[in-house]
Automatic annotation (TrEMBL):
Molecular function via GO: dihydroorotase activity
Gene: pyrC
Family (UniProt): Belongs to the metallo-dependent hydrolases superfamily. DHOase family. Class II DHOase subfamily.
Residues that, per the record, bind Zn(2+) 2: K100, H137, H175
PANTHER family in the cross-refs: DIHYDROOROTASE
Protein name per the record: Dihydroorotase
Limits of the Amidohydrolase-related domain: 12-316
Assembly notes: Homodimer.
Lineage, highest ranks first: Bacteria, Pseudomonadati, Pseudomonadota, Alphaproteobacteria, Sphingomonadales
Pfam family, one: Amidohydro_1
Binding of Zn(2+) 1, residues: H14, H16, K100, D248
Entry keyword Nuclease: no
Length: 345
């Protein structure tokens, strides 16, 4: 039995760090596990211009523990008013690593998102030309569509056209949850990739209702049927360079989860590597973990691989029921459960 696993330092390609007290409380968890992370721009108000992104990056750096060498990679929140020149300037000056497309009202703080993707043509042309990745929350918001079909319908109605119209545009379909997404990304050319969260590897939709309504299993896109979970797991451990680690860690204070109309989002940052590693071990794919966690994403983004390594060892850890207090009290993913591996400091 493998007792220790050492891999190149990993990156997290999808993180919500929030702002203010929550940022101060959670930044250290991501910075402890990962060398770099793609930081989502869905603050209120959203991060739509270069100055706001640079200021947010400074707040993140200020929130890190002393001695941390963590690098936040900032993203631009696309709106209907997105300005191609501002975006290009932010990318070329190294402030932005990517653009994030939220269909309007698809998820937390997406009210300013895009209402008509086709109207973004000039922006997408620019991204394609300068090699700036487009990160997509791939769900329709059409109330006629069954909630569990939102991702599949987005692929059918929008993503296929987008990939055909912008064949050289780098697209990351974020936090994929369905067999249809796995199939689409697998069949597409090398410009299309996907991130995968730990919760979509561990949970199917039964988790939402097991023993009563379970708000801490609620995230967007919502967890799906078992056959979809199995397809996403197979993709993650396949070794394909199209699939890489993106936790979508999304902390909300406990009260905002455990209420009527509770928020979507799972806070998985504290034990993210441990959570993913459990899946790779169950799938007999420990030797493919490094590619998923530390190589595929950087190569897709065109960034250098990290120097240095991290080590995980087989040592059981019980995940706390609650982390933080007051306005930062958050229930972590796997709360109360025992995981078999631990990241060694
Ligand atoms: C995210 C959040 O809370 O910001 N929530 C979530 O369920 N994943 C937004 C998002 O990525 O959809
Ligand atoms: Zn997210």
């Amino acid at each position: 039995m493998t007792e220790r696993l050492t891999i190149r330092r990993p990156d997290d390609w999808h993180v919500h760090l929030r702002d203010g007290a929550m940022l101060s409380a959670v930044a250290r968890y991501t910075a402890r596990q990962f060398a770099r992370a793609i930081i989502m721009p869905n603050l209120s108000p959203p991060v739509t211009d270069v100055a706001a992104a640079a200021a947010y990056r400074d707040r993140i750096l200020a929130a890190l523990p002393a001695g941390s060498d963590f690098t936040p990679l900032m993203t631009c929140y696309l709106t209907d008013a997105a300005d191609a020149q501002e975006i290009a300037r932010g990318f070329e000056t190294g402030v932005w690593a990517a653009c994030k497309l939220y269909p309007a009202n698809a998820t937390t703080n997406s009210a300013h998102g895009v209402t008509d993707i086709r109207a973004l043509g000039p922006v997408l042309e620019t991204l394609q030309r300068i090699g700036m990745p487009l990160l997509i929350h791939g769900e329709v918001t059409d109330p006629e569509v069954d909630f569990f079909d939102r991702e599949k319908v987005f692929i059918d109605r929008t993503l296929g056209h987008l990939v055909r119209d912008f064949p050289a545009l780098k697209i990351v379909l974020e936090h994929i949850t369905t067999a249809e997404a796995v199939d689409f990304v697998t069949a597409a050319g090398p410009t299309v990739a996907a991130t995968i969260t730990p919760q979509h590897l561990h949970l199917n939709r039964n988790a939402l209702f097991a023993g009563g309504l379970q708000p801490h299993a609620f995230c967007l896109p919502v967890v799906k049927r078992e056959r979809h979970r199995l397809a996403v797991r197979a993709a993650a451990v396949s070794g394909s360079a199209k699939f890489f680690l993106g936790t979508d860690t999304a902390p909300h204070v406990r009260e905002r989860k455990e209420m009527a109309c509770g928020c979507a989002g799972i806070f998985n940052a504290p034990y993210a590597l441990e959570s993913y590693l459990a899946v790779f071990e169950e799938e007999g794919a420990l030797e493919r973990f490094e590619g998923f966690a530390s190589e595929h994403g950087a190569r897709f983004y065109g960034l250098p691989l990290n120097e240095g390594t991290v080590t995980l060892e087989r040592r059981a850890v019980t995940v706390p029921d609650l982390l933080g207090a007051g306005e930062t009290a958050v229930v972590p993913f796997h709360a109360g459960q025992t995981l078999a591996w631990q990241l060694v400091d």
